[in-house]
Amino acid sequence: MTAVASPADAPRQTSSAAIPGVNPWLVALVVSMATFMEVLDTSIANVSLPHIAGGLSATVDEATWVLTSYLVANAVVLPASGWLSTVFGRKRFYMTCVALFTISSLLCGMATSLPMLIFFRVLQGMGGGGLAPSEQSILADTFAPRQRGMAFALYGIAVVVAPAVGPTLGGWITDNFTWRWIFFINVPVGILSLVLSDLVVRDPPELTAQRHRRLKAGFKIDYIGFGLIALGLGCLQVVLDKGQEEDWFSSPFITAFAIASAFGLIVGSIWELRVEQPVVDLPMFKDRTFGIATLVMFAIGFILFGSTVALPLFMQQMLGYTAKLAGLAITPGGFAVMALMPLVGFLVGRVQAKYLVVFGLLISALALWHMTGFNLQVNFSTMVWARIFQAAGLAFLFVPINTAAYALIPPEKSNNASALLNLARNLGGSVGISVAQTLLARRTQFHQARLVNHVSVFSPATTRMLAGLSRALSPHTAFEATRKAQGMLFNIVQRQASMLAYIDVFLVLAIASAVMIPVVLLMKSNKPGQGGGAVH
């Protein structure tokens, strides 16, 4: 078909979210600072939970609400962040989120009880929920389409590297200082971000004009839609975060939250499609490319967070690594992403975005398939290179998919697009973590049951192993040696069952990567380096 020029492209190239005279790259660096800290906070507290529980006289299970409360508040604010940016002005909304995130981080570090910490974490999650969508839309409006790939590369570094280094950084801070400093470190970064944002960021003229027009015409606040969507997403986050811990639907607590989530999301979606000024712009999914990009972003979150949870657990539980050593094995993957992002940003201006995404998914699938060959004798360097292999694929996903998603979106829709894309990534991450944890628990039981069938007193191999273990324990009495040998054999079976469960997790993540490849190919083609040109 002939090329079709998009009217959205011209405004994007002439209008900028940077104050005149300010280098756009300075804007990108400034807005990425707060987003990095916000994404970091989704994982930095994980390894500090025992210390938090001990310091606040609570159990570790009770302390997990420190994580859940943040994720729930984040999920509630994310879908409405585009609407809130339009109502209050994007710069004002962004700076309000930075201020709330910074102040609540300080209060989290000063909390003297668990309920107080959970309350401040809710505030922190509400502030953090608006940061990533605001940054993404600011970058989309600051850079011309030919430069947008490089700008999104900086954003991708923040999103990919932060959850990878979070547990390691959290463990180091907790070991060398106290758990309170995992929150205090946000404060100077937040203050610096606030000052610099005020100096270099502005709302583009067309967004300001759109806001004034809508306010003049009478801005209706969709309380019902916001309430229903918040109920649905908030309850869904609780189900995903607490499901495995509560044994899923055998728990009345999880069942009640699942029903509430389904009600909120179904009724809320119907309401948002009918209301004149919706909080969540669901009709945006009518655009095939944006809809597919959002689905792929969900899959990216699923793969990234699922593997980021599974790999450290594998190294600590199966290989006996300390938290610090596990972090050192994962961190080079973050450096690989940082090294490749500029290259990907360069390629986005010259290669079809969807083909880069296909390449990234293929590399990610092969890397995860490679991990299914792990065993209990795998060494440190193998773990490092496996993570670097996977990270190379992730580097080719975030930048092209964001570029493709914004390619045909008009400037006045950039806030809504950012909100939906980041919501998809966060939900995908929550589902990925939940699936990984559930698979590890259930598949370990499954494999253990199968392996035990082959461990029988009538099996010559079992008899020989028990005899050998008993001889190794010869200083003990015959009865004690036999009992200890049986215990050692059971531990061997458990370790092998757990190893097979980890392989299953890596296999599921590999399949998830591979399945998305044909879906990406359904996206519309656009001329590289142009926002809406050459649609086929």
Explain how this protein is built.
By secondary structure, the protein is mostly helical. The protein has three domains: 9-219 and 277-446 and 496-520, Growth Hormone, Chain: A (Up-down Bundle); 225-276; 447-495, no CATH class. The protein is built from 22 helices and no strands. It has helices at residues 9-14, 24-40, 49-55, 60-63, 65-77, 81-88, 90-110, 114-129, 131-142, 145-176, 181-184, 186-200, 205-217, 223-242, 252-274, 288-318, 323-348, 353-371, 380-407, 414-452, 460-472, 478-520. Helix 2 (24-40) packs antiparallel against helix 9 (131-142), helix 7 (90-110) runs antiparallel to helix 12 and helix 16 runs antiparallel to helix 22. Residues 1-14 and 531-536 have low confidence and may be disordered.
Topology of helices and strands:
Blueprint: H1 9-14, H2 24-40, H3 49-55, H4 60-63, H5 65-77, H6 81-88, H7 90-110, H8 114-129, H9 131-142, H10 145-176, H11 181-184, H12 186-200, H13 205-217, H14 223-242, H15 252-274, H16 288-318, H17 323-348, H18 353-371, H19 380-407, H20 414-452, H21 460-472, H22 478-520
